[in-house]
Specification:
This protein has about 220 residues and is an all-alpha fold. It has seven helices and no strands.
């Protein structure tokens, strides 16, 4: 009778589990990005005015909390789409503002292409090299908190230079977060595809807006 090495069987099982997690994460991520594009389009077509920043932040953190709370159940999928749909709605008025600029369509497409290229490049690197980027966790958490608070300060006091610096910081931090999250999926640091999807989605969303802000500023339209 043929004997199976438990270590080999366990290793094969771990690879299958990881591959399934990667497939589920990127499938859901693609669906949420499409859904966000649809809700952003609806907001633009209906000329929806920008939401109050407190409502935007409140809605985001509430839906994010509910997504984390229900991530291990089917309800979590509903909150993923509620969160990403809401973020798409908030993006619509922002895109309308940028598209009203003389070369707005070029800026938006350049930011979109740049974000896509960065995401695919970093994800591909983390998936193919299988390097462990878990050491970045603490740095990213502190960095994002500092950048978030600096962004609020820049908005309150209308400090354009600080605002640009925050956008540059966010592009670097979101790049790090993509590497960190993809690495966590590969190495078992993240086993929930809903939570993995949300982290990658937020990274893409913030990177796109930050890149769009910088392109507009250096394009002479800010």
């Amino acid at each position: 009778m043929r004997q199976h090495n438990p270590a080999v069987v366990g290793s094969q099982s771990a690879v299958l589990t990881t591959n399934k997690l990667i497939r589920n994460t990127y499938t859901l991520l693609a669906m949420t990005l499409i859904f966000s594009a649809v809700t952003a389009g609806i907001a633009m077509i209906t000329n929806m005015p920008p939401l109050n920043p407190f409502i935007t932040l409140g809605g985001y953190f509430l839906l994010l909390f509910l997504t984390h709370k229900t991530a291990n159940s089917a309800t979590g999928l509903l909150f993923v789409f509620a969160l990403t749909g809401f973020m798409g709605l908030t993006l619509g008025p922002i895109l309308s503002m940028y598209l009203s600029l003389p070369n707005g369509d070029q800026l938006v497409m350049t930011a979109l292409g740049g974000t896509g290229a960065i995401f695919l490049g970093l994800s591909g690197y983390a998936l193919t090299t299988r390097k462990d980027f878990s050491f970045m966790g603490g740095f990213l958490m502190v960095g994002i908190l500092v950048a978030f608070l600096a962004g609020i300060g820049a908005a309150i006091f209308d400090m354009q230079v600080l605002s640009l610096a925050v956008s540059a910081m966010f592009i670097l931090l979101m790049s790090g977060l993509i590497l960190y999250q993809t690495s966590a999926i590969v190495h078992g640091g993240e086993n929930n595809y809903i939570l993995a999807t949300i982290t990658l989605y937020v990274s893409i969303y913030n990177m796109f807006l930050s890149l769009l802000h910088l392109l507009t500023a250096f394009g002479g339209d800010d």
